[in-house]
Protein backbone atom coordinates (compact mmCIF):
# COMPACT_ATOMS: atom_id res chain seq x y z
CA UNK A 1 0.00 0.00 0.00
CA UNK A 2 1.13 3.53 -0.86
CA UNK A 3 2.62 5.35 2.20
CA UNK A 4 0.63 8.49 1.41
CA UNK A 5 -3.06 8.88 2.10
CA UNK A 6 -3.10 12.32 0.45
CA UNK A 7 -0.83 13.90 -2.14
CA UNK A 8 -1.56 17.52 -3.02
CA UNK A 9 0.43 18.62 -6.05
CA UNK A 10 0.58 22.02 -7.75
CA UNK A 11 -2.89 22.93 -6.46
CA UNK A 12 -4.32 26.22 -7.73
CA UNK A 13 -7.52 27.74 -6.37
CA UNK A 14 -8.39 31.19 -7.65
CA UNK A 15 -11.25 33.62 -7.06
CA UNK A 16 -12.16 35.53 -10.22
CA UNK A 17 -13.36 38.87 -8.87
CA UNK A 18 -14.48 42.05 -10.67
CA UNK A 19 -11.24 43.65 -9.51
CA UNK A 20 -8.95 40.86 -10.80
CA UNK A 21 -7.87 37.29 -10.03
CA UNK A 22 -7.25 36.52 -6.37
CA UNK A 23 -4.75 33.66 -6.27
CA UNK A 24 -5.62 32.26 -2.83
CA UNK A 25 -3.80 28.97 -3.44
CA UNK A 26 -1.13 29.02 -6.10
CA UNK A 27 0.93 25.93 -6.86
CA UNK A 28 0.64 24.26 -3.45
CA UNK A 29 2.32 20.88 -2.99
CA UNK A 30 2.43 18.74 0.17
CA UNK A 31 2.14 15.09 1.14
CA UNK A 32 0.35 13.44 4.06
CA UNK A 33 1.38 9.99 5.27
CA UNK A 34 -0.98 7.48 6.84
CA UNK A 35 -1.40 7.94 10.63
CA UNK A 36 0.69 11.13 10.56
CA UNK A 37 -0.05 14.81 11.15
CA UNK A 38 0.97 17.59 8.82
CA UNK A 39 0.90 21.08 10.29
CA UNK A 40 0.05 23.85 7.81
CA UNK A 41 1.24 27.13 9.26
CA UNK A 42 1.12 30.74 8.13
CA UNK A 43 -0.42 34.07 9.09
CA UNK A 44 -4.00 35.04 8.38
CA UNK A 45 -4.69 35.23 4.64
CA UNK A 46 -1.92 32.84 3.53
CA UNK A 47 -4.39 30.39 1.94
CA UNK A 48 -4.58 27.69 4.61
CA UNK A 49 -8.38 27.48 4.84
CA UNK A 50 -8.87 27.71 1.07
CA UNK A 51 -6.41 24.78 0.73
CA UNK A 52 -8.54 22.75 3.19
CA UNK A 53 -11.77 23.61 1.38
CA UNK A 54 -10.14 22.74 -1.95
CA UNK A 55 -9.47 19.21 -0.64
CA UNK A 56 -13.10 18.82 0.46
CA UNK A 57 -14.25 20.62 -2.73
CA UNK A 58 -16.24 23.10 -0.64
CA UNK A 59 -14.60 26.32 -1.87
CA UNK A 60 -17.10 29.18 -1.87
CA UNK A 61 -18.12 30.87 -5.11
CA UNK A 62 -16.55 32.45 -7.07
CA UNK A 63 -13.54 30.36 -5.98
CA UNK A 64 -12.57 27.45 -8.23
CA UNK A 65 -9.94 24.73 -8.15
CA UNK A 66 -8.26 25.44 -11.47
CA UNK A 67 -5.26 23.15 -11.50
CA UNK A 68 -3.15 20.50 -9.85
CA UNK A 69 -3.99 17.14 -8.32
CA UNK A 70 -5.37 16.00 -4.97
CA UNK A 71 -4.71 12.27 -4.86
CA UNK A 72 -6.64 10.55 -2.06
CA UNK A 73 -5.85 6.89 -1.46
CA UNK A 74 -7.94 5.01 1.11
CA UNK A 75 -5.91 1.87 0.37
CA UNK A 76 -7.77 0.87 -2.77
CA UNK A 77 -5.78 3.12 -5.14
CA UNK A 78 -5.51 6.89 -5.63
CA UNK A 79 -8.47 9.00 -6.77
CA UNK A 80 -7.87 12.56 -7.99
CA UNK A 81 -10.42 14.72 -6.13
CA UNK A 82 -9.79 17.61 -8.56
CA UNK A 83 -11.52 15.56 -11.25
CA UNK A 84 -14.62 14.98 -9.04
CA UNK A 85 -17.42 17.53 -9.25
CA UNK A 86 -18.04 19.20 -5.86
CA UNK A 87 -21.67 17.95 -5.90
CA UNK A 88 -20.85 14.44 -7.09
CA UNK A 89 -21.95 11.34 -5.21
CA UNK A 90 -18.27 10.46 -4.74
CA UNK A 91 -17.51 13.77 -2.97
CA UNK A 92 -20.67 13.61 -0.82
CA UNK A 93 -19.71 10.09 0.24
CA UNK A 94 -16.20 11.22 1.09
CA UNK A 95 -17.11 14.36 3.06
CA UNK A 96 -17.82 13.63 6.71
CA UNK A 97 -17.04 9.94 6.24
CA UNK A 98 -13.50 9.55 4.87
CA UNK A 99 -12.48 13.18 5.44
CA UNK A 100 -13.97 15.35 8.20
CA UNK A 101 -13.25 18.95 9.11
CA UNK A 102 -13.43 20.87 12.38
CA UNK A 103 -13.25 24.63 12.70
CA UNK A 104 -12.10 27.34 15.10
CA UNK A 105 -15.67 28.46 15.57
CA UNK A 106 -17.98 25.50 16.35
CA UNK A 107 -20.98 27.62 15.34
CA UNK A 108 -19.64 27.53 11.76
CA UNK A 109 -20.51 23.85 11.64
CA UNK A 110 -23.14 23.34 14.38
CA UNK A 111 -26.70 24.25 13.52
CA UNK A 112 -28.42 26.39 16.19
CA UNK A 113 -31.85 24.85 15.46
CA UNK A 114 -31.08 21.15 15.92
CA UNK A 115 -29.99 19.29 19.06
CA UNK A 116 -26.47 17.86 19.22
CA UNK A 117 -28.02 14.36 19.04
CA UNK A 118 -30.02 15.16 15.90
CA UNK A 119 -26.89 16.57 14.21
CA UNK A 120 -24.84 13.52 15.16
CA UNK A 121 -27.55 11.12 13.97
CA UNK A 122 -27.74 12.96 10.64
CA UNK A 123 -23.94 12.64 10.24
CA UNK A 124 -24.14 8.87 10.83
CA UNK A 125 -27.33 8.02 8.92
CA UNK A 126 -26.46 10.01 5.79
CA UNK A 127 -23.66 7.51 5.13
CA UNK A 128 -25.69 4.35 5.92
CA UNK A 129 -27.66 2.50 3.29
CA UNK A 130 -29.75 0.55 5.79
CA UNK A 131 -30.66 3.14 8.39
CA UNK A 132 -30.25 1.49 11.79
CA UNK A 133 -31.31 4.23 14.22
CA UNK A 134 -30.71 2.22 17.39
CA UNK A 135 -27.13 1.32 16.43
CA UNK A 136 -26.56 4.91 15.23
CA UNK A 137 -27.69 6.34 18.57
CA UNK A 138 -25.38 3.95 20.44
CA UNK A 139 -22.51 5.10 18.23
CA UNK A 140 -23.34 8.77 18.96
CA UNK A 141 -23.46 8.18 22.72
CA UNK A 142 -20.19 6.24 22.58
CA UNK A 143 -18.57 9.16 20.75
CA UNK A 144 -19.98 11.79 23.15
CA UNK A 145 -18.44 9.81 26.00
CA UNK A 146 -15.16 9.42 24.06
CA UNK A 147 -14.80 13.21 23.63
CA UNK A 148 -15.28 13.64 27.38
CA UNK A 149 -18.64 15.41 27.14
CA UNK A 150 -19.98 15.96 30.67
CA UNK A 151 -23.44 14.43 31.15
CA UNK A 152 -23.61 13.01 27.60
CA UNK A 153 -27.27 11.84 27.82
CA UNK A 154 -28.40 15.36 28.65
CA UNK A 155 -26.05 16.98 26.05
CA UNK A 156 -27.41 14.63 23.37
CA UNK A 157 -30.74 16.43 23.73
CA UNK A 158 -29.26 19.92 24.18
CA UNK A 159 -29.00 22.75 21.64
CA UNK A 160 -25.63 24.43 21.03
CA UNK A 161 -26.71 27.65 22.80
CA UNK A 162 -27.28 25.63 25.99
CA UNK A 163 -23.62 24.56 26.11
CA UNK A 164 -20.27 26.24 26.85
CA UNK A 165 -17.66 27.01 24.14
CA UNK A 166 -15.52 24.03 25.16
CA UNK A 167 -18.57 21.72 25.15
CA UNK A 168 -19.57 22.95 21.65
CA UNK A 169 -15.99 22.26 20.50
CA UNK A 170 -16.25 18.72 21.90
CA UNK A 171 -19.64 18.26 20.20
CA UNK A 172 -18.17 19.38 16.87
CA UNK A 173 -15.30 16.92 17.29
CA UNK A 174 -17.78 14.16 18.20
CA UNK A 175 -19.72 14.84 14.97
CA UNK A 176 -16.49 14.92 12.92
CA UNK A 177 -15.24 11.68 14.50
CA UNK A 178 -18.46 9.68 14.63
CA UNK A 179 -17.76 8.00 11.27
CA UNK A 180 -14.11 7.36 12.19
CA UNK A 181 -12.67 9.36 9.27
CA UNK A 182 -9.35 8.48 7.66
CA UNK A 183 -8.35 12.16 7.53
CA UNK A 184 -9.30 14.90 9.99
CA UNK A 185 -8.77 18.49 8.84
CA UNK A 186 -8.55 20.73 11.91
CA UNK A 187 -8.69 24.44 11.00
CA UNK A 188 -7.45 26.42 14.04
CA UNK A 189 -9.59 24.20 16.31
CA UNK A 190 -8.28 25.54 19.62
CA UNK A 191 -7.61 29.23 18.97
CA UNK A 192 -10.76 30.47 20.72
CA UNK A 193 -10.27 28.28 23.82
CA UNK A 194 -8.33 28.81 27.03
CA UNK A 195 -5.01 26.95 27.33
CA UNK A 196 -6.26 24.12 29.55
CA UNK A 197 -9.14 23.26 27.20
CA UNK A 198 -6.73 23.70 24.23
CA UNK A 199 -4.45 21.01 25.66
CA UNK A 200 -7.42 18.69 26.31
CA UNK A 201 -8.62 19.07 22.70
CA UNK A 202 -5.18 18.43 21.16
CA UNK A 203 -4.76 15.38 23.43
CA UNK A 204 -8.15 14.15 22.28
CA UNK A 205 -7.13 14.44 18.63
CA UNK A 206 -3.90 12.52 19.30
CA UNK A 207 -5.90 9.84 21.11
CA UNK A 208 -8.31 9.42 18.17
CA UNK A 209 -5.41 9.41 15.74
CA UNK A 210 -3.93 6.36 17.49
CA UNK A 211 -7.22 4.61 18.04
CA UNK A 212 -8.57 5.00 14.48
CA UNK A 213 -5.25 5.13 12.52
CA UNK A 214 -6.21 8.59 11.35
CA UNK A 215 -4.15 11.20 9.50
CA UNK A 216 -4.51 14.86 10.47
CA UNK A 217 -4.07 18.15 8.63
CA UNK A 218 -3.63 20.67 11.44
CA UNK A 219 -4.02 24.29 10.31
CA UNK A 220 -2.77 27.02 12.60
CA UNK A 221 -0.74 30.21 12.94
CA UNK A 222 0.74 28.94 16.22
CA UNK A 223 4.20 27.34 15.98
CA UNK A 224 3.83 26.09 19.58
CA UNK A 225 0.84 23.89 18.68
CA UNK A 226 2.65 22.69 15.55
CA UNK A 227 5.66 21.65 17.67
CA UNK A 228 3.29 19.60 19.81
CA UNK A 229 1.19 18.01 17.06
CA UNK A 230 2.98 17.74 13.72
CA UNK A 231 5.21 15.09 12.16
CA UNK A 232 5.72 17.22 9.05
CA UNK A 233 5.18 20.93 8.39
CA UNK A 234 4.21 23.02 5.37
CA UNK A 235 4.83 26.75 5.85
CA UNK A 236 2.48 28.81 3.64
CA UNK A 237 2.89 32.38 2.54
CA UNK A 238 0.68 34.23 0.07
CA UNK A 239 -0.89 31.11 -1.41
CA UNK A 240 2.33 29.13 -1.73
CA UNK A 241 4.23 26.58 0.35
CA UNK A 242 7.54 28.37 0.98
CA UNK A 243 9.12 25.60 3.06
CA UNK A 244 8.19 22.03 3.95
CA UNK A 245 9.81 19.11 5.68
CA UNK A 246 9.82 17.02 8.82
CA UNK A 247 9.02 18.94 12.02
CA UNK A 248 12.57 18.22 13.16
CA UNK A 249 14.11 19.68 9.98
CA UNK A 250 11.95 22.83 10.10
CA UNK A 251 12.68 23.52 13.79
CA UNK A 252 16.40 22.60 13.66
CA UNK A 253 17.31 23.95 10.25
CA UNK A 254 14.80 26.56 9.03
CA UNK A 255 15.92 28.13 5.75
CA UNK A 256 13.21 30.47 4.48
CA UNK A 257 13.29 33.97 6.06
CA UNK A 258 9.52 33.65 6.70
CA UNK A 259 9.93 30.34 8.58
CA UNK A 260 12.75 31.88 10.61
CA UNK A 261 10.50 34.86 11.42
CA UNK A 262 7.67 32.57 12.57
CA UNK A 263 10.06 30.63 14.80
CA UNK A 264 11.44 33.81 16.33
CA UNK A 265 7.89 34.88 17.18
CA UNK A 266 7.44 31.78 19.38
CA UNK A 267 7.64 32.32 23.15
CA UNK A 268 10.54 30.37 24.68
CA UNK A 269 10.15 28.71 28.07
CA UNK A 270 12.47 30.37 30.59
CA UNK A 271 12.74 33.73 28.78
CA UNK A 272 11.78 36.74 30.90
CA UNK A 273 8.16 37.76 30.38
CA UNK A 274 9.35 41.37 29.95
CA UNK A 275 11.31 40.40 26.80
CA UNK A 276 9.38 41.43 23.70
CA UNK A 277 8.58 38.73 21.17
CA UNK A 278 9.84 39.19 17.62
CA UNK A 279 7.12 40.21 15.14
CA UNK A 280 7.39 40.06 11.35
CA UNK A 281 6.77 43.61 10.23
CA UNK A 282 3.84 44.35 7.91
CA UNK A 283 0.91 42.22 6.84
CA UNK A 284 0.21 39.51 4.30
CA UNK A 285 -0.83 41.37 1.14
CA UNK A 286 -3.99 40.35 -0.76
CA UNK A 287 -2.89 38.12 -3.66
CA UNK A 288 -4.93 40.04 -6.25
CA UNK A 289 -3.13 39.72 -9.61
CA UNK A 290 0.16 39.30 -7.71
CA UNK A 291 3.38 40.17 -9.55
CA UNK A 292 5.70 37.34 -10.65
CA UNK A 293 8.10 37.64 -7.73
CA UNK A 294 8.75 36.03 -4.38
CA UNK A 295 5.53 36.68 -2.42
CA UNK A 296 7.48 37.45 0.77
CA UNK A 297 9.90 39.96 -0.80
CA UNK A 298 7.92 43.05 0.32
CA UNK A 299 8.53 42.06 3.99
CA UNK A 300 11.80 40.18 3.77
CA UNK A 301 14.83 41.46 5.71
CA UNK A 302 17.14 39.46 3.44
CA UNK A 303 15.76 40.60 0.08
CA UNK A 304 18.05 41.49 -2.80
CA UNK A 305 17.37 42.71 -6.35
CA UNK A 306 17.07 39.08 -7.52
CA UNK A 307 13.94 38.49 -5.40
CA UNK A 308 11.66 40.67 -7.52
CA UNK A 309 12.62 39.10 -10.85
CA UNK A 310 10.53 35.91 -10.85
CA UNK A 311 8.94 33.30 -8.59
CA UNK A 312 11.60 31.18 -6.86
CA UNK A 313 11.35 27.42 -7.50
CA UNK A 314 10.97 24.84 -4.70
CA UNK A 315 14.44 23.43 -4.12
CA UNK A 316 15.36 20.33 -2.12
CA UNK A 317 17.64 21.20 0.81
CA UNK A 318 17.91 17.63 2.09
CA UNK A 319 15.65 14.62 1.47
CA UNK A 320 12.00 15.76 1.88
CA UNK A 321 13.04 19.27 3.04
CA UNK A 322 12.05 21.82 0.39
CA UNK A 323 12.41 25.59 0.30
CA UNK A 324 11.26 28.31 -2.09
CA UNK A 325 13.82 31.13 -1.76
CA UNK A 326 16.33 32.65 -4.19
CA UNK A 327 18.91 32.74 -1.40
CA UNK A 328 18.89 28.97 -1.22
CA UNK A 329 19.63 27.39 -4.58
CA UNK A 330 20.95 24.05 -3.35
CA UNK A 331 24.42 22.81 -2.68
N1 LIG B 1 -14.98 33.63 -0.47
C1 LIG B 1 -13.89 34.37 -0.78
N2 LIG B 1 -13.95 35.34 -1.71
C2 LIG B 1 -12.86 36.09 -2.04
N3 LIG B 1 -11.64 35.92 -1.46
C3 LIG B 1 -11.51 34.96 -0.54
C4 LIG B 1 -12.63 34.13 -0.13
N4 LIG B 1 -12.18 33.27 0.83
C5 LIG B 1 -10.87 33.55 1.02
N5 LIG B 1 -10.47 34.55 0.21
C6 LIG B 1 -9.12 35.14 0.14
O1 LIG B 1 -8.19 34.09 -0.09
C7 LIG B 1 -6.97 34.36 0.59
C8 LIG B 1 -6.63 33.17 1.47
O2 LIG B 1 -7.61 33.07 2.51
P1 LIG B 1 -7.64 31.91 3.60
O3 LIG B 1 -8.91 32.05 4.36
O4 LIG B 1 -7.36 30.61 2.95
O5 LIG B 1 -6.41 32.31 4.52
P2 LIG B 1 -5.97 31.64 5.88
O6 LIG B 1 -4.50 31.45 5.78
O7 LIG B 1 -6.78 30.43 6.17
O8 LIG B 1 -6.31 32.78 6.93
P3 LIG B 1 -7.10 32.68 8.35
O9 LIG B 1 -6.09 32.14 9.31
O10 LIG B 1 -7.48 34.10 8.63
O11 LIG B 1 -8.28 31.78 8.13
C9 LIG B 1 -7.17 35.66 1.38
O12 LIG B 1 -6.61 36.74 0.64
C10 LIG B 1 -8.68 35.78 1.46
O13 LIG B 1 -9.07 37.13 1.54
UniProtKB/TrEMBL annotation:
InterPro entries found in the cross-reference section: AAA+_ATPase, ABC_Ni/Peptide_Import, ABC_transporter-like_ATP-bd, ABC_transporter-like_CS, Oligopep_ABC_C, P-loop_NTPase
GO biological process: peptide transport
Top-rank taxon: Bacteria
Localisation per UniProt entry: Cell membrane
Membrane topology designation: Peripheral membrane protein
Record-linked PROSITE patterns: ABC_TRANSPORTER_1 (PS00211), ABC_TRANSPORTER_2 (PS50893)
GO molecular function, one term: ATP binding
Keyword annotations from UniProtKB, A to Z: ATP-binding, Cell inner membrane, Cell membrane, Membrane, Nucleotide-binding, Translocase, Transport
Keyword Iron-sulfur: no
Protein family membership: Belongs to the ABC transporter superfamily.
Protein name, UniProt field: Dipeptide/oligopeptide/nickel ABC transporter ATP-binding protein
Organism of derivation: Eisenbergiella tayi
Amino acid sequence: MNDYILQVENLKTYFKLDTGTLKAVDDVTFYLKRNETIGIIGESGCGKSVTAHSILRTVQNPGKVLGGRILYDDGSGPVDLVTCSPDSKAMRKLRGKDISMIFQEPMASLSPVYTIGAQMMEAVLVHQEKKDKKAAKELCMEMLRAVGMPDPEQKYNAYPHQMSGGQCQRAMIAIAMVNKPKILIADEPTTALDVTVQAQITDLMKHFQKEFNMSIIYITHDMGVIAEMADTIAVMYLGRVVESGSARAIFKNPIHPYTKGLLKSMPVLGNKSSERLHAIEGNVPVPLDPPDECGFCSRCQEKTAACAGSIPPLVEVEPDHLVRCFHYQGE
